[in-house]
Specification:
The chain is an alpha/beta fold and 528 residues long. It has two domains: 38-267, Rossmann fold (3-Layer(aba) Sandwich); 308-524, no CATH class. Helices cover 54% and strands 9% of the residues. It has helices at 2-36, 85-92, 115-131, 147-156, 205-213, 240-254, 267-291, 311-331, 343-360, 362-368, 373-397, 405-429, 446-469, 477-480, 482-503, 506-524; strands spanning 42-50, 53-61, 70-74, 97-101, 140-145, 163-167, 195-200, 224-228. An eight-stranded mixed β-sheet has the order 1-2-4-3-5-6-7-8, sandwiched between helices. Helix 13 (446-469) runs antiparallel to helix 15. Mean pLDDT is 90; it is low at 435-444.
């Protein structure tokens, strides 16, 4: 009787902790929804057929009627129209009508991406809007970020507009450290009249100096160049100073009068972060429940007899195998199997490194990678559920992340290609060490294991960086998207560690991680 009472007492603090954690998560998600759902302007989505380009486009109507002018706002490489919402709202606050398309291979626009195709479709869309009377030359601004900024200048040089706003335009000359193989466009045209070019103060010098060179002293007297201090390439999209500079330039180019327009609110961004925090709070208990159904009793956990590879030995292996994979890809261009722009390179790289790891540790693999159907099914369902939940929330709040049918069709081969690397990584990390008690407590070394896994990911990125800088692979997205890769790796590695802890299965952890990684690739890389 006393044993039962003692067991009940022990479980109450844990249950109370889970209850308050779930309550906090629900509150965060509800608060996030209340911030995300309201729209300050009327938004409508269309599929516009422009010269054979069927572009999914958001139209943001200002409060004023009729509109005082039109802005065609173009996103960058590996971005989408939803990411441009803060800037778009800044233009709409001025009383301007804003069109924000998904360029080919991005977001909800079908078709294969290429820089030339993106430029062609942007010009076709501008001409289509003009033919419908929605973009008169003297009342239209072309604006864009990164690749979109370069496109805005190139199209604006051919199709007359009132002004151009290029936010951190992609370099178009192999100067100041920019390499020719990384250029999306070459031979920049003469700068269109009334062009505003701006960069972030924390961007690479190659970006800033190439952008500044676009303005020719004594010739482009109607244009201007600005640097936003403390801003990065990505943070420019949510920087109020960028919005203010853009509004002031649009006022000059369109000859508008009146008081300064208000800044768009950031409630949507704050709400998106609140919702993400709530989902992360729920993820841990959900993973433990979903993947631990087959092991209700701690005595049922199978013992793992293998040990982790010494960190310095594993680090050396990662570096050597990564260098071998980059060298192989330098002489052999992989076929376009997965049809992701610059994603095929990374997928083949990971697959090759994973196969090398499995061969090098084939004995440990035979002992460790045991397939238990219930465990694998739990890991699979948990990964799919989390992928759907997080992509749905991101789609609602921050960026277009929900996978459509076209992307789901590419999911199986990508999943199979990245699985060997994650299996090999689990072999290097070894089992999660448990305490020698029957209590449900956190394992020893959880943070050390996570940090070790992130170290291996960082070391694996170094050969990729070397391939871009020294072997001129041209894989520029591996550099530009580093912040997003880093955030994803932290979240994915943490989830894999939880699955490994609960199931004591390297195969289940790798399966879980491969599903998330394949989904991430399909969200972040353009279709090719």
């Amino acid at each position: 009787m006393s044993a039962v009472a003692e067991g009940q007492t022990e479980t109450r603090p844990e249950n109370r902790k889970l209850f308050f954690r779930a309550l906090a998560a629900v509150v965060l998600i509800v608060v996030g929804l209340l911030m995300v759902l309201p729209r300050p302007f009327h938004e409508r989505n269309y599929v516009i057929d422009a010269g054979g380009c069927r572009l999914t486009t958001t139209l943001i109507d200002p409060k004023e009627s009729p509109a005082r002018g039109t802005v065609l706002l173009l996103h960058g490489l590996a971005a989408n129209r939803k990411i441009m919402t803060y800037l778009a709202n800044g233009y709409a606050a001025m009383g301007l009508r804003v069109f924000v398309p998904d360029l080919p291979g991005h977001g909800k626009t079908d078709g294969e991406f290429s820089p030339a195709r993106a430029e062609e479709c942007s010009e076709n869309l501008l001409r289509e809007l003009r033919s419908r009377g929605l973009a008169p030359p003297d009342k239209t601004i072309l604006a864009g970020h990164s690749m979109g900024g370069a496109i805005a200048m190139r199209v604006g040089a051919r199709v007359p507009v009132a002004g151009v706003i290029a936010i951190s335009p992609a370099p178009m000359r192999a100067k100041h450290g920019a390499m020719s193989e990384t250029l999306l466009y070459e031979n920049p045209p003469p700068l269109p009249p009334f062009t505003e070019v701006m960069n972030g103060g924390l961007e690479f010098a190659a970006m800033r100096d190439n952008a500044k060179d676009l303005l020719q002293p004594g010739r482009d007297v109607s244009s201007h160049y600005d640097v936003v201090p403390g801003a990065t390439h990505t943070s420019l999209l949510s920087d109020s100073r960028v919005v203010r500079l853009s509004q002031e330039w649009a006022n000059k180019a369109l000859h508008l009068s009146g008081n300064a327009a208000p800044m768009p609110a950031r409630w949507s961004l704050i709400g998106a972060l609140c919702g993400l925090a709530g989902l992360f709070l729920l993820s841990g208990p959900f993973l433990r429940e979903a993947t631990g159904k087959a092991f209700r009793d701690k005595a049922e956990y199978p013992a793992e007899t293998t040990q982790a590879v010494l960190w310095w030995q594993a680090s050396a292996e990662i570096l050597l195998m990564g260098a071998a994979a980059v060298e192989l890809l330098h002489y052999w261009t992989p076929p376009n199997l997965f049809r992701l722009f610059e994603g095929d390179y990374l997928i083949v790289f990971l697959s090759f490194v994973g196969l090398l790891l499995l061969v090098a540790h084939r004995k440990e693999a035979a002992e460790t990678l045991r397939l238990r159907p219930l465990t694998m099914l739990g890991a699979l369902l948990a990964a799919v559920m989390l992928l759907l939940l997080f992509t749905a929330w991101l789609e609602l709040s921050l960026t277009e992340a929900w996978l459509d049918a076209t992307r789901w069709q590419r999911f199986p081969p990508i999943f199979l290609a990245v699985l060997p690397f994650l299996l090999g990584e689990e072999l290097l990390l070894g089992p999660v060490t448990r305490r020698d008690t029957a209590e449900a407590v956190r394992p020893r070394g959880a943070w050390q294991r996570l940090l070790r896994g992130l170290l291996y990911r960082f070391l694996l990125w170094l050969p990729l960086l070397g391939g871009a800088l020294l072997l001129h692979s041209g894989e520029i997205l591996m550099v530009l998207l580093v912040p997003f890769f880093a955030l994803f790796c932290v979240a994915q590695r943490w989830g894999m560690d939880v699955v490994r802890e609960v199931t004591a299965s390297a195969a289940a952890a790798a399966l879980f991680g491969a599903i998330l990684l394949a989904g991430f690739f399909l969200v972040i890389f353009p279709l090719h």
